[in-house]
Amino acid sequence: MMEILQRDVLVLNKHWMAIHICSVKRAFALLYQDLARVVTEQYEIHDFDSWKDLSRYSEGNFIHTPTYKILAPEVILLRRYGKFPKHYVKFNRRNIYQRDHSTCQYCGQRLPREELTIDHIIPRSRGGKSTWANVVLACVSCNAMKGDRTLEQCEMKLIHEPKEPHWSAIMRRSMAEEDHVLWRKFIDIAYWNVSLEE
Q1: Which of 30, 52, 110, 180 is least surrounded, with the fewest CB atoms within 10 Å of its CB?
Q2: d(Cα 18, Cα 168) in Å, to the nearest integer?
Q3: How far apart are the C-alpha atoms of 108 and 116, rounded to whole Å?
Q4: What are the helix (H) ranges across 1-81?
Q5: Is the Cβ–Cβ distance between 136 and 100 less than 8 Å?
Q6: How far is CA 138 from the centre of its chain?
């Protein structure tokens, strides 16, 4: 059940525009507080009680409570929030792995998460910061070879220049990883209509 509570839920503002991703746990909190509604494939919206009733006749990922089971939502619609906030991608491990496609940025090997480390291009011992531009994924052997040296000192090169990913790219990867079919109805629209950066 804890795994289901951590799954991603697409958040739409009151104008039905994709603005954020939250966990199932957070989505249920918003739904229960009457701040959001669940959106179905048929674009129907449900409050907590109607979603709980609909869950009795549905299939999918359920959260079980002592008295009932309720379907985990995939998309929620905020009732009052209409803004389109400036997006930034949270700097965390999960998003670094998504940005770098679980691939060592020195040798190009795509590996399971447990075989990759996060490397500081300019080592922290030399004043390097934990920022999008200074961290990359590295396999254990490349990280050991680089050690506490700069790229020039160890004569290594990066496959891609690290930078902050665009929020829509992270959404699209999350959609592919967890196979959120319903998200495509909202993200494809956002993908084609968002202005491109130079």
Answers
A1: 110
A2: 9
A3: 12
A4: 2-5, 24-32, 48-55
A5: yes
A6: 21
- The CA distance from 70 to 60, in Å, is 10
Q: Among residues of the chain, what percentage have pLDDT more than 90?
A: 51
pTM above 0.70, yes or no: no
Please tell me what DSSP assigns to residue 33. T
**CA separation for the pair 191, 198 (Å, rounded):** 16
Give 99-127 pLDDT, tens digit per residue.
998 999 999 999 998 999 999 999 999 99
DSSP code string of 148-190: TS-HHHHT---SS---PPPHHHHHHHHHHHHT-TTTHHHHHHH
Pairing of the two strands 8-12 and 75-78: parallel
Residue indicated by tokens 């079919």? 181
The single residue listed with the structure tokens 């006749």 is 57
Residue of 193, 175, 184, 141 lying closest to 39 (CA atoms): 184
Q: What backbone phi and psi angles, to 5 degrees, belong to 8?
A: -80, 145
The rounded Cα 143 to chain-centroid distance in angstroms is 25
Which two three-digit tokens encode residue 2?
């804890």
What distance in Å separates the CA atoms of residue 34 and residue 18, rounded to the nearest whole number?
A: 19
